[in-house]
Design brief:
Blueprint: H1 4-17, H2 68-72, H3 78-88, H4 99-102, H5 104-107, E1 116-123, E2 126-130, E3 137-140, H6 145-154, E4 162-168, E5 173-174, E6 219-222, H7 223-234, E7 240-244, E8 249-250, E9 256-259, H8 264-277, H9 287-311, E10 317-321, H10 328-335, E11 340-344, H11 352-355, H12 361-368, E12 373-376, H13 379-393, E13 396-398, E14 401-404, E15 407-413, H14 420-428, H15 431-443, E16 448-455, H16 462-475, E17 483-490, H17 501-520, E18 528-531, H18 537-546, E19 549-552, H19 561-569, E20 577-580, E21 593-595, H20 600-611, H21 615-631, H22 634-651
Parallel strand pairs: 1-4, 1-10, 2-5, 4-7, 10-11, 11-12, 12-15, 16-17, 16-19, 17-18, 19-20, 20-21
Antiparallel strand pairs: 2-3, 6-9, 8-9, 13-14, 14-15
Helix pairs in contact: 1-3, 6-22, 8-9, 9-10, 12-13, 15-18, 16-17, 16-20
Length: about 675
Amino acid sequence: MANGNGDRLEAQRLQSLHSTLHSSNANATATLGIHPTGRSSYPESKREESPDDSPEAGPQWNANSFSPSELAAGSRSPDELLRRLSLALPEKPKHPRDLADVDPRAAHPELNLSGHVISATICIPYSVGFNPGVEWELKSRRGTSALFDSFSWLASADSPWNHTLLGWTGELQSVTGLGVSATPSNNSSIKVAPLNKSSAPIPLDGSSQPPQPGGLEGMKISRADRSRLERQLERDHGGRIIPVWLLDDYDKDGDIAVAKDQRKWRRYAEHELYTLFHYKQNEPTDSQLVRRAWADYYKMNAIFADRILEQYKAGDIVLVHDYHLLLLPSLLRQRVPKIYIGFFLHVPFPSSEFYKGLSRRKEILEGVLGANMIGFQAYSYARHFSSCCTRILGFDSSPNGVDAYGAHVAVQAFPIGINAPATRHMAFADPAIEEKIAGIRELYRGKKIIVGRDRLDSVRGVAQKLQAFEIFLERHPEWHDKVVLIQVTSPTSTEEDKDDANGKTASKISDLVARINGTYGSLSFSPVQHYPQYLSREEYFALLRIADVGLITSVRDGMNTTSLEYIICQKYNHGPLILSEFSGTSATLHAAMQINPWDLGGTADAINDALNMSEEEKRQQHSTLYRHVTKNTVQSWTRNYLKALMTNLASHDQSVATPALDRAK
């Protein structure tokens, strides 16, 4: 690597400042935020267990810390070891922290905070496999990596908070192969629900297929099995986790629970809300099915509320995440009027004219207005929400929030980031990635590489990207046989029926790839390399590091972590980033080359400009982007969100708030 000498000098400087960086100490068992026994650092999660009843912890999902032994594994020389350690060291804050960063209770004594944060999200960080009577199988869940990094930071020693994460177990998978059956009635598009639609995942295992959430008819789970999973999650390395059980039935003693149609809990959120929030409207469907999906959505939010209040103590802060739990803030406030609630929506929020098309538009708005503060990815989403509250509910609104039920609900934009130190470590500290880079460089020797990574979904703009690349090749014949577009399309689980919109999207992409390669390719070279699959982590980061241009053309996107990870991986290469102005990250990445994905000719011109950009221009552009991404990390996002929530709680008297009545009652 061209900057190897600089990295070596930096590592030597760090070694002189920190004696623990010597390779002789590399086997020390020290992991930030983790109790030496493997238990959570928090006293709430400690419990007495008999020697024969001590379940193993799940795979570590805490990306906010690395042990020296992990960093030393596979290092081939002392220089490489020091370089890995220097990359993994957390960056020192450039500005002194205020009191709220160190001791929130002392900063806001009038709030009587307990110092405990309860986070509620749709799923825990694991895909859960069930085998009666034995340990549960826990595998890292794909997707929402930034959100999980936020949770693990809250649970780490760097955070001033105690943290508890509540989430649904997700669709339970039978590891024995028994009790799994997909019924024909589940083939309807309204009955099909994905594992995760909120973000494109960072694949961890390229050899395994994504789990399919098939209908599990009659899976019986005993109280002992449920308690076993709760103990396993209590010992997790990423902090205290409490599962929310969404089950269909119990026996008369409450011992045996039955899980039947597990996908129904996602159905309304991911078929009605997700599509509308991304400016798509569904075809008319059976109204009875929609009413049933709404009833399941309400019931799921009510179960979450029950589970949270089992853990809640006065002074706790409850953080609710995303569109699956839009009713939860109001359900909590109905039962605890003075509870502190923050809500954050990780997907776009549409304009009022489009939002009016939702049949349950009032119930959704009233549900989320139970929060004290509502956060969005971009200012435009916050403005749309406030406008909806005024036009649909008749509440007064301003740029600062909404006045609802006698109280002020703050509405603000908080663009989320990524865990920059962890991403930098994963991208540069693994020798397997260096081998992948060498292989890719040899395969495309003498050619410029454009990289795109998206999920197979019509809102990701893959078809627009390919059409723009075709126009680029048509307009610039001098680039024939000199540039290659490597497009990785992660499989989607939004629909199972191959005749639906996503099936059409896949067919359109395949046709475009074949047409471009047939027109501009040859027997020895194809200008578009399309990989409709998950990549291994090593292949993913190798592509981001070796790319000459990053191309993201999403037509509607709440948060795109690929753009942020690309900037980190281009630390030495300085490849330009072409970013859609419809992506949620475009509002903060001003130095990127922003394009309108519907303007195919403009995107083609941007590709040509990026390939012809001078080294000095690329360096300046990347320097600005890199500085932003490393400064606005997911850790700083979490801190800023909580500080803003506490400031709003202290500034506005919530004692006169009148919660909305329970419509079901």
